[in-house]
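Researcher: I'd like a structural prediction for the single chain below. Treat it as a standalone chain; there are no partners to consider.
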Amino acid sequence: MTKPVRMMYNGNVIAEYDRDYGHGNTHYQLEHYIGLIERRPRSVYNAAPIKETIPNEFYQFLMKLDSPKEIVKALRLYLDTGTELLKYLACADSYDTLYACVIGNTVKNVPIEASVRIILPDLKRYDSLLKGGYAV
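Model: Treating it as a single chain, here is the predicted structure.
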């Protein structure tokens, strides 16, 4: 049996969720667990909140990543961008490429300066010290 619960402050609804009063039914929300998962990244492989809240195709992508920290970063990206990142999974093979695909749309191309003037240092004093002389 579920009942909607509303949390109010000054007459405004600030939170709303379904409260499940049944036995043996656990409903996870990844947003509530992401802080704990970030503190203990190796828990991502067996965490029920991850397995039960994210789409299966995204879970399969996460299990292909190299390290638990990359998985946690990808989960945070999922929470920040929502299901929009699912359309980039086909072309992504790592967290970095997924991040570049998702965030790349908002990044502006900055022109790169073709010629950078480099001023070479004067090392005569150091050469003098190395030869046993004085550096003045």
